[in-house]
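Exam review. A common question shows you a sequence with its structure tokens and asks you to describe the fold in words. Practice with the pair below. Do the first one on your own.
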Amino acid sequence: MTKFNETEAGAAFIASGDSRETSPEIMRAIAFFARDEKEAVALWEGDGFGRVANLSDIWEHATGNGRIDDNDLMWGDRTLAMIMAEDA
């Protein structure tokens, strides 16, 4: 089975990061866990946590388990660090 992040729809979702003001690392992480565009959008909007993936899964994938500073990754108008702090 082809993973969403390996499809043309997945590539288009990842490319939409600029218009969503979201770092490519976060967009790739979301696409990695989503099965389709609907799930990807739900995750980006914050509605898919716990069903599709957990926020910690996105953090681990986007930061490479902490190798990239989460203060440098944007998710809309907030950093990934801010989002993680709000979820704690």
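Now try the second one, then compare your answer with the model answer below.
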Amino acid sequence: MKYNVKKLSVGHCHITLVPENDIEKKLVIIKDDKDKEDKAYTFRVHYQNAITSKIGLKAHLNSIDGDSYPTTVFAEYILEDGSIGNR
């Protein structure tokens, strides 16, 4: 899975998941609420990986929100020391 991360402001970014193969394309299709719940952890890992690759190893996903979940979300992150910080 590739990630497009657009930093909006300190502590906030948009993350877009970009599937690279058929398995990943099937992953981002949400069939119902149970399917969404079952896949939530997997998506959270992908969002964390996206933030880590763009912002740095000390940045951690704090929250997500998005009408286009799971492919595009608005994410809030914090740094390891609990601050938002400038990066």
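Model answer, second protein: The chain has a mean pLDDT of 92. The longest strand covers residues 59-68. Full marks require stating both points clearly.
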